[in-house]
Amino acid sequence: MRFGGITALDGVAFTVQPGTAVGLIGPNGAGKTTLFNCLTRRCTPDAGTVRFEGEDLLALPPHAVAGRGIARTFQNLGLFPRLTVRENVMVGAHSRGRTGHLAAALRLPRVRREERELCDQADDLLRRLGLADVADHPAAGLPFGTLKRVELARALAVRPRLLLLDEPVNGLSHGEVDEFADLVRAVRQDFDLTLVVVEHHMAFVMGLCDKVVCLDFGRKIAEGPPEEIQRDPAVVEAYLGVAA
Ligand SMILES: Nc1ncnc2c1ncn2[C@@H]1O[C@H](COP(=O)(O)OP(=O)(O)OP(=O)(O)O)[C@@H](O)[C@H]1O
């Protein structure tokens, strides 16, 4: 994947087994977010393939990705500040809606029924993630840690089988990181998720993931179980050495 003269990703290849959690680490600018953008079709790589459950994702239009069971969160939160927490979560759920634009514009009864169903499902998720008390609060003005959970709820509303988390604990306090880790573990189990997590917080990644892939300057420099990656000299030099 190139941006002008910059090669953001170069021959990166790895497999994510269903039901596992894979951590994607690497120094700033290593290409982690670009890789997520390729998986969700925000970027189209110049070469290579991206397959999900046997299907070539690069052959899909970007809006079709959520419908295939892939959801993501964003490094800088992708919420709508003026919408309430519930409405933000319903934005995620709408990707599963079955009614078309015409039916929606005409407010046909089945549209109202579907809207109610999506609202009930959003409320279930809000309860599950401890957000019921702020359901009617606009996203703007809520504490950052709460917004991270709202974003997770919105991604889960897509009912994904693959969930991509982009720096989910960036900006959280120590205690909040531990709480978020517990929450991710719980929803992973409850929703039978496969996870790919980009994160600089090493304890979070190493505690959550079955496998870790390390990128540096757009190339994969290591891949393996967390305990091996932590000892890998190339990783230590490129990343852990800098972070320590
Ligand atoms: N839209 C873009 N236009 C130009 N260059 C870009 C664009 N997106 C990313 N890049 C460049 O591609 C490289 C990889 O960036 P990317 O954001 O994927 O790294 P990252 O590993 O996610 O970094 P960080 O940990 O800081 O989020 C960087 O050199 C970046 O400047």
Automatic annotation (TrEMBL):
<dbReference type="GO" id="GO:0016887">
    <property type="term" value="F:ATP hydrolysis activity"/>
</dbReference>
<dbReference type="GO" id="GO:0005886">
    <property type="term" value="C:plasma membrane"/>
</dbReference>
<keyword id="KW-0813">Transport</keyword>
<keyword id="KW-0547">Nucleotide-binding</keyword>
<dbReference type="GO" id="GO:0005524">
    <property type="term" value="F:ATP binding"/>
</dbReference>
<dbReference type="InterPro" id="IPR003439">
    <property type="entry name" value="ABC_transporter-like_ATP-bd"/>
</dbReference>
<keyword id="KW-0067">ATP-binding</keyword>
<dbReference type="Pfam" id="PF00005">
    <property type="entry name" value="ABC_tran"/>
</dbReference>
<dbReference type="InterPro" id="IPR032823">
    <property type="entry name" value="BCA_ABC_TP_C"/>
</dbReference>
<dbReference type="InterPro" id="IPR027417">
    <property type="entry name" value="P-loop_NTPase"/>
</dbReference>
<dbReference type="InterPro" id="IPR051120">
    <property type="entry name" value="ABC_AA/LPS_Transport"/>
</dbReference>
<dbReference type="InterPro" id="IPR003593">
    <property type="entry name" value="AAA+_ATPase"/>
</dbReference>
<protein>
    <submittedName>
        <fullName>ABC transporter ATP-binding protein</fullName>
    </submittedName>
</protein>
<dbReference type="Pfam" id="PF12399">
    <property type="entry name" value="BCA_ABC_TP_C"/>
</dbReference>
<feature type="domain" description="ABC transporter">
    <location>
        <begin position="1"/>
        <end position="242"/>
    </location>
</feature>
